[in-house]
Amino acid sequence: MDSTITAERNKMSEAEIARLYQEANQKALIKRRVERTALVAVNIAAAFVILLPLFYAVSIAFMPSSELFTTELNLFPSSPTMDNFKEAMRKIPLGRFILNSFIVAGAITFGQIISCSLAAFSFSFLDFKGKNVLFMIVMATMMIPGEATIISNYLTVSRLKWLDSYQVLIIPYLTSAMGIFLFRQFYMTFPISLYESAKIDGCSNIKFIFRILIPLTKAAIGAMAVYTFINAWNMYMWPLLVTGSDSMRTVQIGIGMLDSVDSQSISMMIAGVVMIIIPSISVFLIGQKQLIHGMFSGAVKG
């Protein structure tokens, strides 16, 4: 009799424990859903605040000037028009400026990927005297602002008679300490035995870089490409200093030519701004995963 009562009490206690465990799981699930919903709501609100100026700029680009300069707050054009874009293209050779920026940004991006990967390979796999000191000197150049060297660079390219040409816009930016550091940190995650095995098999350094390293570093290349392209696309001071003709100007210089004392040109200028930010935003959206992965993947070994 006592054993039967004890068994029933054990069954009741097990059922009670199971019920309490289920209730705890249910509460934890509800808490996670509430936290996730709150986080999504905060992200949506933050995204709305951050992207509102961009959306409003796009709206102004399609808005006639008569709707922009009123006492009412017109967030959306009641009569969308493409006249602002057409007027911007007529006032300045914006198509030529965009082509120049694509050529310059593309060449700089390709050049930095090649030169930085070669330099990073030397600092990662080769053993030569003064390697660490040389790498420290390269890293120290990151602390020098571009404004401190712009005059000396200008005098150099002026003596070489490179002014108002593609080479003056491209060659000074074909390498960067940031790119060397990024690739070196990524290469340091590979074991040195990988390089030694390739050398035993008769693989040269160039073949090792282009057949082994580069295919294994797609994330770093993607991050470097996005970062470099956007920076090159947004260059302003150097192209302003070394170019003087419409055939060589880039978009950041050209967009300033749309500015006018005439207040009616604001919608036209915003239309030009929208046209030149589309490529950089598109590159960022396409390569944002590679950018994030490439920036953080080299930070952890193993």
Automatic annotation (TrEMBL):
Pfam families named in the record: BPD_transp_1 (PF00528)
Keywords, alphabetical: Cell membrane, Membrane, Transmembrane, Transmembrane helix, Transport
Membrane topology note: Multi-pass membrane protein
Organism: Hungatella effluvii
TM stretches of this protein: 37-63, 97-121, 133-154, 166-187, 208-230, 266-287
Location of the protein in the cell: Cell membrane
Family recorded in the similarity comment: Belongs to the binding-protein-dependent transport system permease family.
A cellular component annotation (GO) from this entry: plasma membrane
Protein's name according to its UniProt entry: Carbohydrate ABC transporter membrane protein 2 (CUT1 family)
InterPro entries reported in the protein's UniProt record: MetI-like, MetI-like_sf
Domain (ABC transmembrane type-1) ranges: 98-287
GO biological process: transmembrane transport
